[in-house]
Amino acid sequence: MAPTPPLSLPVSPRHPKETVNQWAYRSLRQAVMVGLIPPGRSLTIRDVAAALAVSTMPVREALRRLASEQALEVQDNRRIQVPQMTVAKFRELCELRIALECHAAERALPYVTPARIDQLTQIDRRIDEAQAAGDREGVTIHNQDFHRHLYEANPHQVIMPLVESVWLQLGPFTRLALSKLNDFYHVDRHSEALAALKKHDLLALRIALEADIRDGITHVGTAELLSAYVENAGMVG
Amino acid sequence: MAPTPPLSLPVSPRHPKETVNQWAYRSLRQAVMVGLIPPGRSLTIRDVAAALAVSTMPVREALRRLASEQALEVQDNRRIQVPQMTVAKFRELCELRIALECHAAERALPYVTPARIDQLTQIDRRIDEAQAAGDREGVTIHNQDFHRHLYEANPHQVIMPLVESVWLQLGPFTRLALSKLNDFYHVDRHSEALAALKKHDLLALRIALEADIRDGITHVGTAELLSAYVENAGMVG
DNA sequence: ACGGGTTAAACGTGATCACATTTTACGGGA
DNA sequence: TCCCGTAAAATGTGATCACGTTTAACCCGT
């Protein structure tokens, strides 16, 4: 077996006023979210620090934070890796996402203003543009923006951090769903959600959201695709 | 106004094989959970490190982790404190807890065995004993054990970390609910839940759980108690 | 050629130090 | 007496180092 490659991370430019810690966290998070780090690949603090050209300290804090958000997994208190995915776990995460986000939408609905609906419509347009351009990462980002912007209509925000954690756990594997999704015609669930928002129709909103999430995700669980990827990833470590 | 007291933390004994980091995290978490650190009280890394008689490094990692779990709040990138509670936020957390835990129970139900029901019954007995002994902290701990042990029947666990985060955010304020609760006769929702488990009756389980959570929590939200505490705590900082 | 034991490299952890930024305290001017 | 500006103390951040443990490599014996 070939020795593990030296771990190259895409270094996004560091924002001004951003601490090294935040930058390392952001970089690693992004890498995990888009599936750049294969599950089972063991990360060492020193390696990541070298890849980012910083000292070990900010890196280990970033790694630990991601671990506490379930994005990474500390194996036996030694190795750190992206958790392995199983079909059952994937299903659990999918159902959790639906329950959590439907609840978030319900709690946000009373605070949704016409102005926010306009903003959501704009974001939805950006999703379509990215989809048309074949920009999968853009689709993911804008799709998350759409959901986030809906739930954050609620000014007493407590749910989003949990939602983000679930997104992070599903992240490495949703990229697959999107690639599959492009092949099919796919009804625009966001339009349905927007219509429900305009009518303040909670039930219709829940239905649209659940369908949207299932569209983006469940195909993977039912298809042989995930299994293949899971097994493949399992061999990488 | 009196100068802020020098922050004394109850130092639980350090487990063998436990890193300083883990110990600091556990100590701080416990302190937050039982409401020992008043909301608004600003914590400094050096102070906590001094109180625990360790260096600053493990402490800042513990603090950051608690912040990422929403147990603490980094104010303007300088001050760290237990977040202030508002009535609206409290309600959001309560509703979130219900939604999350009912979902967790639903996903766990198919895996609940008679053996586990027995264990749950034993834990429930311990709750009653603590209640009879007036041991509020014991009640809290065993109550959490009960819920955790139910949800963890599901072997593909992804929900508990989120539940723990919500518990942690409610923790500093539930102690009030319990003190109030002792004054009233209070139907044993856990018995109802156990009965529902034995019948594999999902709906009854959800109803019992929701009632249990509301019993333990919502009284605070409706009573003037929380408001009083919130305002009081707001003046502490 | 294969396996086990020894040794060296690698790693996580935690302490200490230096530096930049922020907060606090003090004192002078209106 | 009340601001406000300046200086000193305090704080977070990040780098470096030392130590104990774990992992990996290597060599010798069979």
UniProtKB/TrEMBL annotation, chains A, B:
Pfam families: FCD (PF07729), GntR (PF00392). Keywords: DNA-binding, Transcription, Transcription regulation. SUPFAM superfamilies: GntR ligand-binding domain-like, Winged helix' DNA-binding domain. One of its GO terms (molecular function) is DNA binding. InterPro entries: GntR_C, TF_FadR/GntR_C, Tscrpt_reg_HTH_GntR, WH-like_DNA-bd_sf, WH_DNA-bd_sf. Signal peptide: none annotated. Coiled coil: none annotated. PROSITE patterns: HTH_GNTR (PS50949). Residues 18-85 form the HTH gntR-type domain. This is HTH-type transcriptional regulator McbR. It comes from mine drainage metagenome. The gene is mcbR_10.
